[in-house]
Each structure stands twice: as structure tokens, then as C-alpha cells.
């Protein structure tokens, strides 16, 4: 998983095998005991008191205020990754990378780091504690990754091993979700298996499903999936089942390129940018620093309830989670021949439309929005208010 700066190649070195890598053009150095040549441009291995019947809706929202659906991303989509987000760069390291000057890495612009923690059910990187702790001390957000060995044991078993040995996630503002590293089998000469570890696509999908479900059960967070588009297509049959898991795409080149099926966008991208000044692999986050930081916090849940009485609509916004939500935006529209005449603090309206911003909503707290309306013309048989906070929508019928 680690790209060597010595050449356009990668060797994966496991704990059981001592390797001296001779770097040549087109040959990589990763943490395994075998080298493989890759063609240019290919991927690295690696409720309301006013209502007798309450109306409500809810969904999770990131600590930064961006609401997220509590369901997998729509399946059946395979898109192109966007370009690298400037300024949000990071690294991934392993035992092979050696001792790291994390202060220098931070000074060079690194915002995050992923550290190799475990492999299979019998290997823990001897440098994990030092590298993981060092990254945190230098102010980097950090996460751990597990190198999958799906032919050796079940996915749930390896997820448990990973969590016990560095992969546990906590909502502390500095720990990124754990990573499941899925790439070509680097031990083919030893285990005599193909790049898919001898698994059929159905078996591979089942294994990944077992790992990601157990990781979510143990941590409350979705594991990041690190893979290449090529490996995913070949070994899972281009499964669309894991769109809810953040994607860390490995691919050489100036752009991420085409994504595996099931993902609309990548979250991280590992490239072979030779101009990179960071130790280990050169990576970028596809978003802003605040979005990256949001991954280190548990999502809160936003719930909308409300009722209508006369010409007044009341909407209660509740944060049922454990983290504060900031800059929460809501948008509403009257229907059936009504328009706004008054809205509460933080809201602006025009005709039938209203937009509101709640600056901060603490955990287990609520905010109440009150709107006054008047008929705007001949009314239809159905009148009321529709309002949404991201994917959380609420429809309030007009009082009868």
C-alpha cells in the first residue's frame, strides 16, 4: 500500500519475509515479499405539543452540519473521480516506511495519515504504535488500516483482530475511520493463489460484507475501503453493495479516473505523485478540511417535527445525537395557495419560499421555528408546508 519514492513500483513486505528490494523502472516497493511490474498509469496494489398527531422525520447529520442519508448510496452508479482537492493532502505509512519525522511531514502540509496496523489474524506492525502516536502528536488526523487476507480467515474474524490491534474508532476529533485494504494477492508464489486470493466474486463480496458489518457493529462507523478499480471489478464482479463505505481509490496518474461501481465519488485518492514531499504514499482528500475533520466525529441525528394551527406553522428541529451541529440549513415551501408573511430568527422568506440557518444546535437539544402565512390566491384541496434539512423532510398539512 505504500508507494516508494525510489521508482514507479511497489513491493509489499510482510513481517515473515525479509526483503531487499532492487528498485527498477516500473517496479514498485510495498510491504510484501514479492515484486510485480505495473504498466504506466496502472493502479498501485495496495414530536410537537401543538399537534394531536405529530409529524416527524429524521436522519443522521455530520458534526459540521452536512446531513447524510442513513442508507447506502444508490447502487448502479459508476462515475469518474474528481481532481485532487488542493491543500488537503496526507500520507500512508507502514513498518517498511521506517521511522518518520512527523513534525516535518506536518510542516510539508500533511493533514492526515493512515498507518498500517494489522494483517490477517496474526500480524501487527511493530512500528504501528510509534507511527500512529507520532502522527497525532504532530497534529495530524490519523487512522489505521488492515491488509486483508481473505483466504486465511473470515471477514468478521479479521475485523475483530483489526479493532483489537489499532483499528478501533472513537469520536475524539482526531481519529479517522479504519480502512480495509483490498488489493492484488502479493503472496501468489507462496500460497499459489490468484490476485483474488482464490475467491469467486460471490465469495469476495460476502467476505467484504462480513468485515464491514462487524467493523460497524464494533465501532459504529463504516470502514473505509481501499482498492483499485481493476481489483474491484475482477475480484468482486464490480459489486455495487458498498456505496455507503467511503472509498479510498488507489490509482497512478494525474486524475483518479473511473470509479468502481456503487460509488459516486472517492473520499481519498492515493497517487504516485513523484513531486510529493511526504513520507510513504502520497494521498489527497476529496473535500475541504472541515469535511475531513467531520470524519473524526460521530454523526448526529436531526429530527423534524411540527404542527399547524390557524395561519401558524411550528417546526421543531431536534439534534438527537451526541455531537453538536453547526450551520444547519433548512429550506421550505408553502403549497396549495399560501405564502409566508413572517418567519423567525435566522430565516428569510419570499413569497412561498423560506430558508433558515441554525447557527448551532447542541446534542440532545431543540430549536423551534415559527412561520405565519396568508392565502396567496385561490387555495387548492391540499395546503401546507414542506420543509427539509438535507434528506430529512417534513410535510405539515394546513389546519382544518
Automatic annotation (TrEMBL):
Keyword Membrane found: no
- InterPro entries the record matches: GH, Glyco_hydro_25, Glyco_hydro_fam25_subgr
* PANTHER family given in the database record: LYSOZYME
Q: Which family does it belong to?
A: Belongs to the glycosyl hydrolase 25 family.
Q: What is its main location?
A: secreted
Domain of life, per UniProt, equals Bacteria
Q: Which keywords, in A-to-Z order, does the entry hold?
A: Antimicrobial, Bacteriolytic enzyme, Disulfide bond, Glycosidase, Hydrolase, Secreted
Role: This enzyme has both lysozyme (acetylmuramidase) and diacetylmuramidase activities.
Q: Name one GO molecular function term.
A: lysozyme activity
Presence of the UniProt keyword Kinase in the record: no
Record the organism.
Planomonospora sphaerica
Q: Which Gene3D superfamilies match?
A: Glycosidases
Listed under GO cellular component are:
extracellular region
Q: What class of enzyme is it?
A: hydrolase
The record's SUPFAM superfamilies line, in alphabetical order, gives: (Trans)glycosidases (SSF51445)
Q: Where does this protein reside within or beyond the cell?
A: Secreted
The protein's Enzyme Commission number: 3.2.1.17
Task: List the catalysed reactions.
Answer: Hydrolysis of (1->4)-beta-linkages between N-acetylmuramic acid and N-acetyl-D-glucosamine residues in a peptidoglycan and between N-acetyl-D-glucosamine residues in chitodextrins
Name-wise, this protein is: lysozyme
